Amino acid sequence: MSSLDVLFRPRAVAVIGASRDRRSVGGAILHNLLTFEFQGQVFPVNPKASVVHSLKCYPTVEAIPDPVDLAVIAVPRPHVLSAIESCGRKGVGAVVIITAGFKETGDAGLALERDVVRLVKQHGMRLVGPNCMGIINMDPAVRLQASFSANEPVPGTVAFSSQSGALGEAILALLRERGLGLSMFVSLGNKADVSGNDLLEYWEEDPQTHVILMYLESFGNPQRFLEICQRVSKKKPIIAVKSGRTAAGARAAASHTGSLAGADNAVESLFAQAGVIRATSIEELFVFASAFASQPIPAGTRVAIVTNSGGPAILATDACIELGLQIPTLSPATQDRIRLAVAPEASVTNPVDMIATAAAAQYEATMRAVAGDAGIDAIIAIFTSLEMIDGPEVAQGIVRGAAGCQKPVLVCFMGNVRSREAIDLMREAGLAVYTFPEDAARALAAMVRYGHWLARPAGRRRTFDDMDGGAIHGVIAAARAQGRRQLTLVEAQRVLEHGGIPVLPWREVRSRAEAVAAAADLGLPLVAKVSSSVIVHKSEVGGVRVGLATTAAVGTAFDEMLQAARARDPEATLVLQQQAAQGTEVILGATRDPKFGPLLMFGLGGIFVEVMKDVVFRVHPLSDTDAHEMVRAVKGFPLLDGVRGRPRTDLAALEAVLLRLDHLMALCPDIVELDVNPLFAAPAGSPTAAADARITLGPPEI
Ligand code: ADP
Ligand code: MG
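That is the input. Now the predicted structure with magnesium ion docked in place:
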């Protein structure tokens, strides 16, 4: 038995603060429990009444003669602590605190909330809230409506958690309006104890719940969220709306990675790695939920569109193509079958435009034919109301035509006054119904993405025993000892090398003679660069010279560059480095988000990376599957994949560097930002190696 069963499947519920006034929160909750026919016992608690709602009312929970599993607390803030204490003494298993005025109001509220949590833990109870709307469990064996929502939900398979109370109420209303049935609802409030993560784990095992919806404002523990979602989302789709911004973008950054790690990257990456389907708005949450709750996941991207009018079909086609879906020509056999049923003027390729005269029989026959076409994975049926055609009859035709179809069927009903009846009829028959074709396309595309997630290998973390943690910490400690947070080029390249990340052969030189000797060792042509903790963007100040082809050129470069650099930083030295013979410049980087931990970045590199912004982020820990996806997710991927006769890049080598960087970030909590830009990504057989590195440390610990 899960520890949350006491919350969602109580045998007896007390409402502390129950009132005769139904407009009060305590009154509304009691009313909802009773009218929704809670299957256990209900006890009103209120010292000022002896009867509420025709039930005997008790002055305290402790005065109730029977055991109580769950107490809903809706008393004014000053009475909350004593109510909890009394619950603890009574042996109550869980409390839902509706009362507001805690963490959300400032320091005093936060202190009170801490006291609440301490007391709840002390008595071994679980807590939802404070500052929430309550909880609902639609299981017919329970029928728990312990919220003050005025909406009467219909039972179904969608579980929903909301971090906002008011939005939760609105969403409950919309669920009903869209014909979506609920399994459980939780208004999380301040999440002082029970979190979204706890609910995900509970709903993972709940047989009633098939789809999980979440409205999130913050993550209590992003790493745990990732771990849990990766598992749960393989069993049940999780659709989430995340509002609010992370702190990552606010920080002034010295690295490219830091400045590119915009406000939303962490969330976007977390969702991608967790298999969470992100809805960009509440509206989209419903667009997605309607399809996921009623339709099977499509096996592929091939969509058939069946319509009685051209315009909406074109809109649907455009939207599908834009979202990566395909509208293939139907098989000749399917076309023949359709031709038998429709008007001679109809177009039977795809979209199938049955023209305005199409009625129930045409829809039925065409749907059936398309459903049987092995080259089709999903169907969008569009009906635009016309005076002479009966909407509800067409709806029945669509339902008959879709009967037994193993593919998702999404209907767009652009209707008139009689549409409501038609829409209800189709929803009851298990179809997803929309008004606009673009919505159907969006929902299908989300299902296709989820299908890919289901097929995606789970991924494993790699370990790198050859990383020399001691040597890396030595480099960092030396910089710290000088009171620096910025590593020099020399130090940063050493960190990479100790971490097993290849760097183009290089040498630090402090005199012209050393430079000439290094040139002989490294070979020409060479690149000269400044190594300094002050000069971070070297080429901006003439700190990089490429194409040094003679020993004399190396000598001259040494003299000129060192002199210029010393004017800015007396400690500056020079680095000579082999010039990369070939390869594409890519950037790899990492930044440490205070909330999400390390964020890893991959993109097409060079000095214009901030202009191009062709980068992808993922959060730590990276699996081999994550690394595999990252290098393929940039828009410029064809450049790496051998477009127009270019050699194909050794992608496995790039993935290995990403995984090493991820490991490095875990190994060195001191590092807050790291850029490898450029790394020369070369074809298999040639060395993939870094040509530049920049590392910033966090503030020293005091
Ligand atoms: P910074 O980023 O500080 O300006 P870099 O070391 O990245 O300095 O050099 C700037 C550019 O010079 C690189 O993006 C790359 O195009 C070129 N470059 C630097 N080092 C090499 C090298 N070893 N081989 C070839 N090109 C290089
Ligand atoms: Mg650079």
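The longest helix spans residues 437-455.
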